[in-house]
Amino acid sequence: MRPTILVVVMGVALAGLLAGDAMTVGVGQPPSEGAKPTPAAWAEIKWPFPLDQWGTGRAFQCRAGDCGAEVNLYLRAKLGFCNCATGVSDDAELDRVGDLELLSDKFEGLGDGRSISVGWMNGRSRPYQVAVRYGAPRTALAIAFNDKCDVVVATVVAERSRIPAAERAALDFLNGDLVLRWAEKELGL
After folding, report:
1. For the chain, N or C: smaller number of CB within 10 Å?
2. Mean pLDDT of all residues in the chain?
């Protein structure tokens, strides 16, 4: 073999070995910071609903640029309103403690709910079709999670096609420091 061909063959072989090593280095490793999706940006807005027996809550909005479409999240605590023995463990309890009545007293589940967790609390999430008092029906997601007999409820309003993404963004937000610190304060922990 001529020296130049030998160098080329050895270079190709070495490149193949290095590529193989490079491919195995990342196996089983968590994605780098650059590979993680950017969290949605939530901005606090004014509570848009009239005062009721649960008082005002906190309202947040994620704009279309961050969430793919505008998503609104309404959050408040309801002290002593949860089933102390089982928490928010089924759809009937979620229907009872949720805040969909802020939008309308006419709502229907779009499927079964699912178990979720927020911080140290467990609860449930479920999508609904809501007959809004003024305007076209809307899709909303009821999320409720409890600490003993106290429950925190979130109502997420988004386009029906965006509900899975809106739920992920909302749960990420609810599991963040801002909401968890607020929940501790509201629940007297």
Report:
1. N
2. 82
